[in-house]
Design a protein that fits this description.
This protein is mainly alpha-helical. Helices cover about 70% and strands about 0% of the residues.
């Protein structure tokens, strides 16, 4: 799964769940240690989309997932599962095991 394919994963997240999951992913980002793992371009994209209130849109969810996975993949996958997005977590986990995320 290339970075472009993450958009397919985002499409599996129902619009009705995006407000809640985006808040939870932001919490993961803000509480994560090792901020040096987050590329500055990704951090800038996240901050821009947050400022424009677009984190619940497809692009925002993709950036949030990418950033949260970069900083704390374990917490991100756990949060997805706890939010009844186990299918999304499974797809990401399988891609990680193949080394493509």
């Amino acid at each position: 799964m290339s970075s472009v394919d993450l958009s397919e994963v985002v499409a599996k997240i129902p619009k009705s769940s995006r407000s809640s999951i985006s808040t939870q992913l932001v919490d993961i980002l803000l509480n994560a240690k090792g901020g040096d793992k987050l590329p500055s371009s990704l951090a800038k994209s996240f901050l821009y989309l947050w400022q424009k209130d677009k984190l619940e849109e497809d692009e925002g969810m993709e950036v949030l997932l990418r950033a949260a996975l970069a900083l704390d993949a374990e917490a991100t996958l756990k949060q997805l599962k706890e939010s009844n997005l186990g299918e999304v977590a499974d797809v990401i986990q399988k891609a990680q095991q193949k080394g493509v995320i």
